[in-house]
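#lab-general

N.A. 3:47 PM
ok so I finally got the sequence cleaned up, no stray characters, all 211 residues accounted for. can someone with queue access submit it? mine expired

B.Y. 3:52 PM
send it over

N.A. 3:53 PM
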Amino acid sequence: MAKVAVIGAGNVGGNLGTRLSNSGVDVKFGVREGTDVKALLAKTKGATAASVEEAAKWGDIVFLAVPGNVALDVAKQLAKVLEGKVVVDCNNPLVWKEGPVWNPPAEGSLAQAIAKAAPGSRVVKGFNQFGAEFHADPSLPGGGANVFLASDDADAKKAVTEVATKAGFRAVDAGPLRNAGVLENVAMLWIHLAMVGGQGRDFAFVMQRRG
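B.Y. 4:20 PM
back already:
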């Protein structure tokens, strides 16, 4: 199983890294100097923490789970380190105008901008389509929440699928990286329904077949 670096220890990164670690994945959090992660690490089964660069160097798969407005800068700073790595963009570019408004960069999506900023990396868009509660626990009646994955690299998508499945998510191949913008808009719908539409945060989108 691939080693996973989770860059960020906030609601998304902390919950996701904990879920992966407690599912048997080898996890290292990448955090800024001075970040207190003792309580977070105590909830895991052996996860560790290091600087952002050290964690990214160590991981086979690097999850970027940072605020959307800094994700691109982080990718630029780590561009050399990320060469050859599978990079999972968990973030969404948005502004708030009485609800979430998709605010993509010129490349068409945040994931595509990250791929341009770190051209040697193998970018996968995913884990951005539900709230942090589902990063901590994807359980739903009948199975785990769907995590839709878009990438131009089939092997990278397969590696992320294996990690997602081990942690209880149901991975769905969402096509090439050009579809990352579609997945970011799925996130806009989730955020709108949860935060503006009165549905609350305790739901996720699921593909379910009849019969």
